[in-house]
């Protein structure tokens, strides 16, 4: 009888893949904020603040990107709300929604590729 056949072989991965579930949920919460008036986005930014600094650098950049997306989006949506009094706010609100969707899609893509999002510091996309 072969001794190796009776022993369990254990394979230990030297670089386990970091869990990207939380950042994906945060991106989804940001997107759901379009429908919920930003409430889910607020939950998402709190989660991002809690989890930042607890993973590899590229994952921490996602949390930073998500936090910036919340605060910049807040500025854009509040400005759009104020501009609705002169009717241009409806257009700027639509642009802010498109901006948010693009940032979240870029974030999802970066998570799938296990790299930080592009242009983390930009106010644009």
TrEMBL record:
Its main location: membrane. The chain crosses the membrane at residues 25-51, 71-102. It is a multi-pass membrane protein. Pfam families: MamF_MmsF. InterPro entries: MamF_MmsF. Keywords: Membrane, Transmembrane, Transmembrane helix. It is found in: Membrane. This is DUF4870 domain-containing protein.
